[in-house]
Design brief:
Elements: H1 8-16, H2 34-44, H3 51-55, H4 63-73, H5 80-89, H6 94-110, H7 113-119, H8 128-140, H9 146-156, H10 167-175, H11 181-193, H12 197-204, H13 209-223, H14 236-252, H15 254-268, H16 272-287, H17 294-300, H18 308-320, H19 324-332, H20 336-339, H21 342-354, H22 358-368, H23 374-383, E1 387-388, H24 398-405, H25 408-418, H26 422-433, H27 438-450, H28 455-460, H29 471-474, H30 480-489, H31 494-505, H32 525-535, H33 548-566, H34 569-578, H35 580-589, H36 595-600, H37 605-625, H38 632-636, E2 649-650
């Protein structure tokens, strides 16, 4: 841990040299055996692995996964004895759990409930499917007493639809008189409050006609509030359903929810907490779009109903109106832990400045500048200070590194990743993480980075302030030559490009989003085709987006296009995330807004955080690439003056170490 401020040269020597020398332990090199293991997996995935094939990989760490893969492919015709024998040989390995899960499903399909019970061990966190299968197994083998009934009832009240495997146990539960009206209403009410109105209507079919009609009226109200609610019974259930329906309506129509709340609250006698919940949603969905009466509706929410989200929106609403005094008041009304966040320290200082109180502002800026985050970097710029960065590196203790390097789980995880068996690699990795100490995890993550499995640091580094200071792990850098070349070609600074890649894919070339964005810079196929046509270069189809060089050529050119179209870097970053349409709307709705206020008042949370994240990451990548940083205040505007305006880094001597931006 850093104890004193130190010079840039010392910082770079400490943080860029890495924790291990050439003679330190490393995981085993399995590259020579790779052709054999790939062929074994190919055969296993067809269920065609022979004894001779297995003998060729007899000493390979992935032999167990190959055997489990082959056995899973052949489970439909497998004998219990052979599966049990393999599970016994693989005991303690994640491959055994993976195989056992498929085996239990096969036993359930066969209706071999005796074997199912012999193989199954109930565990906290079991899926609903597994719990249903377990109930069916117990029932089929003669257990239907009070313990079985209690477990069946506990599963029955789940407030959403359950797998078909639950049908037989629930029929028995019904036949045994275990689903009375009270239990049916319990599940029905839970479904209504979860918005599962289709399930609620189905459950209503088992109630007497009058109650069924009331249940359907409840479901209709949750979907679309109606006037019939005034005639409901004035009881706790009606009040809960009315509150849920009005809160949901507020998301679509704050005005409509406000009108119905005024009419219905006295009729059903909604209590203060129920009114507050609806008022909260009315205020939130009004201010989230900066609609008229935002301030009025925020003021109508009782203080007891405020949470972090609404506290933040109260500040943004005042910012949007350029009401500095009200914004400052809203920040100071936040809970203490929120006020200490560098974001709100920065804006507290900014409002103090605008209100003509510069000395107070400087004191607040000094607190913000201790943080290695976007707003902390802005505060350091304001004060003319170096950026606070106190990096940590994994332990270089040879014994500790040896222990991690020799862990068979690490060897299996890294080799599965290398041969592109990502689901299996992830299973191994998660199992490994559960067995390692925090210090060992950092070493394992470093080994994963060496294998180019960079996102392990993003997802498994931890979330304490100390964990987040492992910058060299959290901010990988690869394909640097292509990155620098294309950044220069497009007149962009490489640190910004690297930050964009880190935010998009964590430098994983085969990353793919739910929206079908692909590769390092997460390009949509349509964007890639358009950019390639504009550049006049060949585009060989979607698969080529997984090629790092192709993706970087097209992605960096697209980023340049965003900058040309929007004029300044922070708006280009927003457009890269949200698209040009929303950015045009934000510009229209809030013209002439200073950059930091423009970013903070964006209506999309994802984009708001994305812009701040990319700008903060740019500073970290300047640390990695150049050793000194372009001031983030300049980078926001696209101003790059590498000769005279780069800033140094320093580990501050404050009692609390500088804290980083979370991924």
């Amino acid at each position: 841990m850093c104890r004193l401020a130190f010079c840039l040269l010392c910082l770079l020597c400490l943080c860029l040299s890495g924790p291990a020398g050439a003679d330190t332990p490393e995981p085993p090199d399995l590259s020579r055996q790779r052709p054999a293991i790939l062929e074994a997996f190919r055969l296993a995935e067809q269920g065609q692995l022979s004894v001779q094939d297995l003998a060729r990989i007899s000493d390979h760490p992935l032999r167990g996964w190959v055997e489990a893969t082959n056995q899973r492919k052949r489970l439909g015709a497998a004998r219990t004895s052979e599966v049990r024998a393999l599970l016994h040989r693989l005991a303690g390995e994640p491959a055994a759990d993976w195989l056992r899960a498929a085996w239990l499903d096969e036993l359930a399909r066969r209706g071999d409930w005796q074997t199912f019970l012999a193989e199954y061990t109930p565990a906290e966190g079991d899926s609903e499917l597994r719990r249903c299968q377990h109930l069916a197994a117990r029932l089929a083998t003669g257990e239907s007493g009070e313990a079985w009934l209690a477990d069946a009832r506990a599963l029955w009240v789940t407030p959403h639809s359950l797998p078909d495997a639950c049908d037989a146990p629930f029929r028995t539960l019904q036949a045994r008189g275990g689903i009375g009206q009270e239990l049916r209403w319990q599940r029905l009410e839970g479904a209504l409050l979860a918005g599962q109105t289709g399930l609620a209507r189905w459950l209503a079919g088992g109630l007497p006609a009058e109650q069924a009609a009331l249940a359907r009226s409840y479901a209709d109200f949750v979907d679309e509030p109606h006037d019939l609610a005034g005639g409901w019974p004035k009881d706790a259930r009606s009040r809960a359903v009315a509150t849920e329906g009005l809160a949901r309506l507020a998301r679509r129509s704050p005005d409509g929810a406000e009108t119905r709340l005024a009419a219905l609250a006295p009729v059903l006698d909604l209590d203060e907490a129920q009114r507050a919940r609806v008022l909260y949603q009315i205020a939130l969905w009004t201010v989230a779009s900066y609609l008229p009466r935002s301030a009025e509706r925020l003021a109508a929410v009782p203080a007891s109903a405020y949470d972090e989200r609404l506290h933040e929106w109260r500040v943004r609403e005042a910012m949007n109106r350029r009401d500095d005094a009200t914004a400052l008041q809203a920040i100071r009304a936040m809970p203490a832990h929120m006020r200490e966040d560098p974001r709100w320290l920065w804006f507290e200082a900014r409002h103090l400045e605008r209100l003509g109180r510069p000395d107070e502002a400087k004191a607040v800026l000094a607190k913000a500048a201790r943080h290695a985050s976007f707003h902390g970097f802005l505060a350091a710029d304001r004060l003319g200070q170096p950026y606070a960065l106190c990096p940590l590196e994994p332990s270089d203790d040879p014994e500790l590194r040896q222990r991690v390097a020799e862990d068979p789980g690490l060897a299996r995880a890294l080799e599965l990743f290398t041969i592109d068996r990502l689901p299996l690699a992830s299973i191994e990795w998660r199992a490994l993480m559960r067995t390692l100490s925090p210090a060992e995890r950092k070493i394992a993550i470093a080994f994963a980075g060496d294998a180019r499995w960079y996102d392990r640091a993003v997802f498994f580094i931890g979330d304490t302030p100390e964990d987040l200071r492992y910058y060299s792990l959290r901010f990988p850098l690869h394909h640097e030559n292509v990155l620098r070349r294309e950044a220069k070609r497009n007149d962009l600074d490489p640190a910004w490009v690297a930050a964009q890649i880190r935010a998009e894919s964590a430098f994983m070339p085969r990353a793919r989003s739910h929206a079908d964005a692909r590769g390092l810079m997460q390009l949509l196929p349509s964007t890639a085709r358009h950019t390639a046509a504009k550049l006049g270069i060949a585009y060989s189809g979607i698969a080529s987006l997984y090629d790092p060089e192709t993706n970087l050529v097209l992605g960096i050119a697209h980023l340049r296009h965003m900058l040309d179209e929007h004029g300044v870097a922070y708006k280009a970053i927003a457009a890269y995330n949200a698209g040009p349409g929303p950015v045009a709307r934000w510009n229209r709705d809030r013209p002439n807004v200073e950059p930091d206020f423009w970013i903070e008042t964006l209506t999309y949370r994802e984009t708001r955080e994305y812009v701040a994240r990319v700008l903060a990451f740019s500073v970290i990548y300047d640390w990695r690439l150049e050793g000194r940083a372009i001031p983030v205040t300049d980078r926001m505007l696209g101003r790059i003056d590498p000769a005279g305006r780069r800033k140094p880094f320093a580990c501050r001597t404050d009692p609390e170490p500088a804290t980083p931006t979370a991924p």
